């Protein structure tokens, strides 16, 4: 690991200003992703701004019945919070399916959102990777790409976003609260936080230089049954091949509202709006659920080794929707 300087911020605005003043500076919270990348020489910050002790570790009620989750709330604390468990069970299921208990005890809410891809070529400095080294190429296109994207990818990058938590938050229409170096705050819909790769896969979010996530705001819990289902190579500890987050409300055998998000299939948490359009207002039937799954994967394209994900995602979504709409 290369040498770096360290600063413990006294406020979120101070932290944002410190990072904005130094393009080679990084925020550090739990450090579960950044430190690994620094050890491998993929991230080489010259200055670390520690935000882990800022007063951003609370989960608070909002006036409209939602929750405001501080940026440094630990994944383990968030998963077991009784308000999350009872009102947003989808989020608890997603959090407990991610990483190990030890990592969840350190990983923060903001850090989870901003964690970088686990593409093996991104981690191998001997291989070309446009995300790590712009213009060098994408080794995954012609290499082993079993874990890679089938939606939203480009010829420059087919890496996927690794977060489980972010997929659940996407289905819940979360909003991201930030502060900039000037002290200005803004709220970003979670669907606009992460960028698709296009020709610049190294630019992963819509955050400005030094802009810091301070909280995630969950709107009041949506009606209906919530389910998060993750398919992975082993049960104990693995990133998703495919994950599905659904919130479906069924009234008198008709689907009054539906929210669907997919993980492990795209460079960002993927909102399946085509599936939602099929489901909204439809009478519950196997045919409707199958058509919704077809719509969710309508634009999917494999790169060879990951072709199986298209069928896997379709069937996982069908099964999850079936479970979410039964006996209600």
From TrEMBL:
Keywords: FAD, Flavoprotein, Oxidoreductase. InterPro entries: CO_DH_flav_C (IPR005107), CO_DH_flav_C_dom_sf (IPR036683), Diverse_Substr_Oxidored (IPR051312), FAD-bd_PCMH (IPR016166), FAD-bd_PCMH-like_sf (IPR036318), FAD-bd_PCMH_sub1 (IPR016167), FAD-bd_PCMH_sub2 (IPR016169), Mopterin_DH_FAD-bd (IPR002346). It is an enzyme of class 1 (oxidoreductase). GO terms for molecular function: FAD binding; xanthine dehydrogenase activity. Residues 1-223 form the FAD-binding PCMH-type domain. The keyword Oxidoreductase applies. Gene3D superfamilies: 3.30.465.10, CO dehydrogenase flavoprotein, C-terminal domain, Uridine Diphospho-n-acetylenolpyruvylglucosamine Reductase, domain 2. Its EC number is 1.17.1.4. This is Xanthine dehydrogenase FAD-binding subunit YagS.
